[in-house]
Amino acid sequence: MSFKETIQSNIQLSYFEGQIPVNYQYTLGVAGNKFFETLKQKGEFIASVCSHCGVKTIYPLIYCEECFNPIDTYVSIELEGELYSFTKCYRDYQGNTYDEPHVIGLIRFDGIKGGIIHRLNINEKDLKLGIRVKAKLKPTNKRTGGLDDIVCFEKV
Amino acid sequence: MKERVAIVGIGVTGFSSVSPSISFKELTYTAAVKAYHEAGLHPKEIDSFITASEDFMEGYSIFDEYVPDQMGAVMRPVQTVTADFIQALGIGCMMINTGRFRTIAVEAHSKASNVKTLNEVKAFALDPVYIRPLKENADFLAGLEMKRFLEETGNTEEQCAEVIVKNKANALNNPYAAHAASLTIDDVLSSPPISLPLKELDAAKPADGAIMIVLASEKEAKALCKKPIWIRGISWFSGQGNPWCRDFAYADYAQLAAQKAFAMAGIANPLKDLDFAEICDEYSYKELQHLESIGIARKGEAGFLTQTGVTKLGGLLPVNVSGGSLGVGHTYEASGGMKVVEAVMQLRHEAGIRQIPNAKTGLVQSWRGVPTATGAIAILSNE
Ligand SMILES: [Zn+2]
Question: Measured between CA atoms, how close is B118 to chain A, in angstroms?
Fold first, then answer.
């Protein structure tokens, strides 16, 4: 220590409490809006397609991550894909523990860059990388245009 | 590098799980006084100052304004970078390379124990539209990556446990370490689940502490210092930013930074040319994934190298002799700094009972943690 004086006793220790609410409205943007509007109204996923290099991306973007060209083409894709990875999550975002784990996976779609990270509802014995899975969506009248319009992914 | 840059002074507080008798400013001040003492400089003789920090971890927005006084940098040029210490070190090197600065002080610290809602701060770094609505703990991304990494490379959970046993045992030899322990593989494998296959002991626990390093140009370094430690290569990269686009089996940012840093330093065969490596091990599997991505181990062989003792103290290439983040503690943006301090001590041959005999060249690597794909690498040498 480089101090002339140091705290020598526990009862001298003190601290200040501080907190501040932080609240945001995150705009979805052109591509995000298109993705969630299509999901809400048609029950479909869309990918963006780069006319320059041909790369298709989910979640869609208005620019190409690979060649940086602008994008104005979007295509509907299957709700079915392949389970790329999964994890059994035992804690929520605040650190509270679950009795039963939430199984979260990354799903890849054939021929498309990127994927969707979401909940899985799959039997333990079937839960393996590489299996085919399909999105289960909320009924049309319950969809709000957000990530929770997808209930989960299930084994095909 | 255009002009050689050396480390001429290090200051470190040591790390602990809490630090209630001292403020974050006093932590930094402690490290700064030591670094300036070693360098034989008064802060007025330092040309510019850099702090690596992240506002949410500090609990201040525009944290830059809370930085100067504890470094002796009031009325002086100061900047903060929102990145790991090694990235700040790289900026310091480039500033010296301009020829307009002779000496730069680089600082980073962790006061993680001040953050009452560490889980929420980590979750707040997740994408608000595409990931955060799942309301899962941010560690789930590490679990997701670990699962794919193990399946695709053939490395095992037992080999990840070997990393923890090794690093926490290494930390027993490091008086700065906060989380040293003598553990067994079974202790690790039976620890509670976080996000399987990730378990409690797979994740580094936070620690408090501060680091300061003084950089100098070659001319200045030779005048100031008997044992300057040269930065022979330094680089940082961001890989696939969106987690749903990532490969998981390898770390793109580490591969890219290694290629660049090795080219700068003239490293052709890392296993042969390096005497040690300090690798980011914020999660156990990350040490293995980083070793393979950097090119120290071939794909699927990092676990085997660990199990057969290649990476232990006394092995062909000791990895995380300091104890790593698993043993010393996870210090957020100071993580790379802790590893640089270890490398400097090793290269000065001042590392005491954990000294690697005749150490000449070492690699230090950092990763900015979940949910990032950003990391840095530096090659340090005493010649
Ligand atoms: Zn393109």
Answer: 8
